[in-house]
Amino acid sequence: MGKYEDLLIKYNHLYIEESKNMPDHLSGMCVDGDIFINSNRSITQQLEILAEEIAHYKLTHGNITNDKEFNNRKFENYARRYAKEQLISLNDIINAFKHGIHNLYELAQFFEVTEHYTLETLEYYKQKYGLTTRHGKYVIQFEPLRVFEYKNLNQRGNIK
């Protein structure tokens, strides 16, 4: 079972419909708490769309489709950022590197998303944290993407 199915199970209390009848320009939408996913998209794109629509369900209210309004753009970006952090967390990046995954194609496959979405998410993290961030006992460098285990050599017992 993949991440898409996992999300469907996790949010089985929501009405989620996959539809082939949605207009081509529309990937998904959340209307009155009901989520609609364009099933003409690839399964990786459907996962990305589902995560974002769930974020809209959790975080935004009302009709925010008019992107000419500042608050609507703000809420749209808020939902996108939330979805990115849910699909590709810092822990997921660390886990990928522990599995020996180092290139964009393998990362996208590991996260079950598109390469484009992977790049967008890494760019988002770079904007949020800068070129590096410390997460637990790891340091994540976003450009080029690398993960290092942080060891404090100044702790008692390590230096003789």
TrEMBL record:
Residues 32-119 form the IrrE N-terminal-like domain. Pfam families: Peptidase_M78 (PF06114). This is ImmA/IrrE family metallo-endopeptidase.
